[in-house]
Design brief:
The structure is a single chain. The protein is built from ten helices and no strands. It is an all-alpha fold and about 300 residues long. The chain has one domain. Helix 5 packs antiparallel against helix 6 and helix 6 runs antiparallel to helix 7.
């Protein structure tokens, strides 16, 4: 039974990894390689000027926290937590997740992804910005923390981590640093690495998982919230597409703000859904120590 459960979990994680790769390709193709996608991103970014003065202080505080030094400190802390729980393999995989996610983002941004000139007004194609580095840092640290904390804290860590990743992604949009698709792509990169890290852990685990370590209600909460927010974002994207062909500077403030709000909601929805996927399998990926020992005595006695 344990080997069968391991096999199903591994298969799900492989499918999740493939799904994240497919989602990343889709986001890249739509929002970088098509004029309509570039237009939707540009309108959302242009809408960030509405009400910026009210959130500028918060945005600055959120983004100023993230730096190379803070990433190193957070990564070291994550490794320390895992080692304190005597999880050497977990420590290595969690650090690999953080490093791999951020290296992948930098490679995609500066080497692999190029934004063509498709004639979209104010698209600012001179510098590529996909994926968002700040969002990758926040999301990768949040996911790694969910992996290394004790089971009883995972639900809370997942909710707070999704909120922090979403807040950072929206902050990059509000600051005018990134388009919505940049933050969404960063979250997908982290989700893909989380699936890969989970696959490594489930294939090397020694303890059996316990259903008591799962957080089904929190998973449903995050997944439901994520899907609802993405539905709203899709509606906002459809509204923006109705203005395709119109100059960005000619759009009304209401249209600009609707696009900006839709982009922000899309980022938040992606963060919630990504974290729900992580939390749904973490009890299988990182089972509690001594899970075998907690089985009822009858389960350990073979029938005569």
């Amino acid at each position: 039974m344990a080997s069968r459960t391991r096999g199903w979990t591994a298969a799900w994680l492989v499918a999740s990894l493939a799904g994240h790769i497919g989602a990343l390709v889709a986001v890249w193709w739509v929002f970088v390689r098509t004029a309509r996608g570039q237009f939707a991103d540009t309108v959302a970014l242009a809408g960030n000027t509405i009400g910026r003065a009210r959130v500028e202080h918060l945005v600055t505080q959120v983004l100023d926290v993230i730096s190379v030094l803070s990433l190193l400190v957070a990564t070291a802390l994550i490794g320390f937590i895992a080692l304190a729980r005597r999880r050497v393999v977990l420590a290595g995989v969690a650090v690999l997740l953080v490093v791999g996610s951020n290296v992948t983002t930098q490679f995609l941004k500066y080497v692999a992804i190029h934004r063509p000139d498709l004639g979209v007004e104010n698209a600012n194609i001179s510098v590529n910005s996909m994926p968002s580095g700040h969002t990758t840092v926040a999301a990768s640290v949040a996911v790694a923390l969910v992996l290394v904390v004790p089971p009883r804290l995972r639900g809370l860590a997942a909710v707070l981590g999704a909120g922090y990743a979403a807040l950072t992604g929206v902050a990059t949009l509000s600051a005018g640093w990134h388009r919505p698709s940049d933050a969404v792509a960063a979250l997908i990169v982290v989700g893909g690495w989380a699936a890969g890290a989970g696959l490594l852990l489930v294939l090397t685990r020694r303890d059996d998982p316990s259903p008591r370590d799962a957080h089904p209600y929190t998973v449903v909460l995050l997944a439901g919230t994520g899907l609802a927010l993405l539905a709203v974002a899709a509606m906002a994207l459809w509204v923006s597409d109705q203005s395709f062909g119109t100059g960005v500077l000619e759009l009304s403030r209401r249209r600009l703000f609707a696009a900006y709000a839709g982009g922000a909601v899309g980022i938040a929805g992606t963060a919630a859904l990504m974290m729900a996927l992580v939390l749904s399998t973490v009890h299988e990926v990182v089972p509690s120590r001594g899970a075998r020992a907690r089985r009822p005595p009858d389960a350990l006695v073979k029938p005569s």
